[in-house]
Amino acid sequence: MNILVCISRVPDTATKVVIGSDGNSIDSQGVKFIVNPYDELAIEEGLRLREKNGGVVTAVTIGTDKSTDVLRTALAMGVDKVILVKGEENPDSFYVAENLAAVAKDENPDLILLGRQSVDFDSLQIPSALGEILGMPSISVVSKLTIEDGKVTAERDIEGGCEIVEASLPCIISAQKGLNEPRYPKLPDIMKSRSKPIDQRDAAAAASRTSIIGMEIPLKQRAGKILTDSDDDINELVRMLHEDAKVI
Amino acid sequence: MSINRNLTEEQILLRDTVRKFAEDVIRPQARELDEKEEFSDEITAEMAAMGFLGAFLPGKYGGSELDYVSYIILVEELARVDSSHAATIAAHNSLGAGPLYYYGNEEQKEKYLPKICQGHLWGFGLTEPEAGSDAGNTQTTAVRDGDYWVLNGSKIFITNAGTDMTLGSTVLTVTGENANGKKELTCFLVENGTTGYETKNMKGKLMWRASNTCELYFTDCRVHKSQMLGKRGDGYHQMLGTLDNGRLSIAAMGLGLAQGAFEYALNYAKQRKTFGKPIARHQAIAYKLADIEVGIAHARPYLYEVCRMLDGNERITKEGAIAKLNCSELAHMAANHCVQILGGYGLMKEYDAERFYRDQKLLEIGEGTSEIQRLVISREIGCFD
Ligand SMILES: Cc1cc2nc3c(=O)[nH]c(=O)nc-3n(C[C@H](O)[C@H](O)[C@H](O)COP(=O)(O)OP(=O)(O)OC[C@H]3O[C@@H](n4cnc5c(N)ncnc54)[C@H](O)[C@@H]3O)c2cc1C
Predict the structure, then answer these.
(1) What are residue A98's phi and psi, to 5 degrees?
(2) Is the ipTM value over 0.95, yes or no?
(3) So what's the architecture of A2-220 in CATH?
(4) Which domain holds residue B100?
(5) Which candidate in B1, B5, B10, B25 is best for mutational testing of the A interface (most A CBs within 10 A)?
(6) Which residues lie below 8 Å from residue B102, measured CB to CB, with a gap of 6+?
(7) Is residue B20 less than 8 Å (CB to CB) from chain A?
């Protein structure tokens, strides 16, 4: 099976984000970047499918010169080859999807795996946009995946339950937590990743359709509310959990 | 200055990976293993599967091929979470694998290195009841008898020598007298299970309680001559060379412990409130945290630089001693401040501060005490010329 895994480079979730002086981008000074955590699930799933069925796993990222680190991580985890598409500094989802589609057309994968979303901009658009551009079935937010005889069965988490979806290959899957437990790269594989080649390409002629005109960091954290054990407050707590937090 | 400054992509990935592994696999069990004084075969096997055991050995023996900076980062990140597990890895690599790899002949390397990369441990038996700092005063003897050498004597405080995963240890013995009247010292590779060789686990340690520490006993223990490491009489310089390198891994343990204690104390200081504000905002507490940060900021780049010297095959006798002394005293300061910042809670076993405080102390004693490091440094700068 020929598997393409799309990964993005995002600020570490523990990083304190600061807005750049231009007011519409994140100041990257001192920020640590990592593989988008949902994409690690996609990489892991690709590797497991290869271990079971044979084939090749290719990882691709649409990024800049700085993005080699996330590809190095994918190599250390065990992907066979990596592609860096060098493009715009701050692309939108459409631009990324167009470029991923261009790579997919060259690589001709049976399966495209992505994370359900990037934890930086959280647009959640790319898996669906990619399906549209390539004319492929796209199943998003998948927490269990089985592929047999070219038939794909995917379980999706939905409000209060799960949905089972079928499609045939070639197909696009976006990964949700629970799909698997990503492996740690082993030390010898980390060291070997150094000497593996990175296939570098220029971005396809695509243009972003949206641009960010401003960013803001919320000034204050939401104030906590303290309730007592009076009957009124217990009713209020139930109401808040039901209507505000929507957890019950 | 970023913790990752001047590191390669692989070194940064290695740091992130080991940090995650230590947080996920070691942290949840560290306190309990310490409390029970128990060495964990399971965690050690997981560390072996990650490639921690043959850290800087070549791939042909099954090693992970780390450069020295990467190896030091590995130890540092383990010590940030738990010193016992860092000790298992540091002692195995620097003291166990090191002498076999640097001084062993090809036959010995092929016999042992693949196994000790894959999940077996190897110890380094130098210290004796009468020979610690004064290692030249070794009493254990080896006497030639045909194709065999017969060992008699004992060793003490030997890390990793008596676990179920231990394959054997390198043992320093007296094989005669040199022309200058000093003892002729020679190392032998002794496998666990050899007749006349026994290991006894030492219990009741203050620190590194989840790491294995042993006494070794040799009673007419016959070891084949092919088990001699290097040449007869090479023991003394093999031992000094091993300790020169080993000091860097103790330095890494100090740096990692200081980092762990710093993060723990800072986090606590921002949560704990007295007199209406977080204690981190009381200047006396804030300055303690600032002092630890200053120490770490100087210690890390220096240690990495010494590692780069070693990678370039430079002599590091002085620099290694400086790094070891500095990082172990830094760990002492950081752990002490950490407990102080936690107040009464810092003294309770439920909080990691207490474990940092105990674990730190070995670093000023093992692989050459702080006094001995100052002796090495003062000799190197010419005080006694
Ligand atoms: C947990 C643990 C693990 C260990 N692991 C190993 C191991 O794997 N292999 C191994 O071989 N050893 C190991 N050791 C032994 C360790 O290296 C020794 O304990 C250390 O070298 C000190 O020797 P000593 O205990 O005999 O102290 P001593 O040498 O008796 O020293 C006592 C005191 O006198 C001071 N002193 C001694 N000589 C001088 C001098 N010339 N000038 C000034 N002060 C001096 C020392 O600094 C110290 O303060 C381990 C020890 C421990 C506790």
Answers:
(1) -60, -45
(2) no
(3) 3-Layer(aba) Sandwich (3.40)
(4) 9-121
(5) B10
(6) B238, B241, B242
(7) yes
